[in-house]
């Protein structure tokens, strides 16, 4: 380090300490965050539509501290991270939600979606397993069932893919408009759709 650089660093350090002494509040503790959380809670009560993503994230982080066993705050943190194009952070948040409740279907699907995104659209074995588990827990999650079947097809197991698609198709209510879309998919993988009752 040259003498000039050392002088500049020294001046910056002195100015920083002086600025903190004049404008900072040494020893204040957690009061600013508590005040900020109170402001956010008031905003939630009076005008929730005006919350910024940063405020929403701060509230979710505080909720995850207040309710350490609840998967929901971690799940919604993952949703925000994904919206901010931070898939790795989103995956960690979804995993955190699943550590709290391994059967929390939204986090299973959220993590699987991120894995697909990180793989460039391919349904990895892990993603297919997560989708299949989500569908097993909640058969109304038709999309999860379909993605699980796609994972099997991409892995080369056409029989398993057809079996899964047939099961999803069979679970759809008779008047569900998705039944019309499923029949061609089943035909495309070489299996006939179950006959309409």
Explain what this protein looks like in three dimensions:
It contains ten helices and no strands. With 197 residues, the protein is mainly alpha-helical. The protein is elongated and about 75 Å long.
Question: How do the helices and strands follow one another from N- to C-terminus?
Answer: HHHHHHHHHH
How many beta-strand runs?
0
Gross morphology is elongated
* Terminal Cα span: 83 Å
Rg, Cα atoms, Å = 25 Å
Give the biggest beta sheet: none
Low-confidence stretches: 20-31, 191-197
Average pLDDT over all residues = 82
Number of helices: 10
The fraction of residues assigned to DSSP E strands is under 5%
Give the fraction of residues assigned to helices.
over 70%
Given the helix and strand composition, which structural class is it?
Answer: mainly alpha
